[in-house]
Fold:
Amino acid sequence: MPILRLVVSCLVFREKSLTDILQELQLQIDINGNKNVVNVDRADILDGAFRAFARKTFNPCRLLTVRFAGEDGIDSGGLTREFLRLAVRAVQQLPIFSGGDRTKNLTLDYIGML
Structure:
């Protein structure tokens, strides 16, 4: 069952708590195998994210290794956290959301998807 469907099903039908769901999902993460390499440019975080997530080899049960274009660095977790922080901020700025910084709502705006 896809991860999102599992989470929604469990929450809607109150079969499991969010903590239980997250613990189950954590057990599915392969911490010893191959990692998903995400090459991104800070100027266009979402482009790099979408390209990485769209690869046929991308596996959501693998850890991420992030490389920022033009920067030296070994990802021991800090680069991944920075990438995720920047990606969430970029998603919040998309026109598919409306409202203040702490009160974002999904807007049914087809133009926002273009």
Summary: Helices lie at 3-12, 18-27, 45-54, 78-92. The first helix runs from residue 3 to 12. The two ends are 29 Å apart (CA to CA). The mean pLDDT is 83.
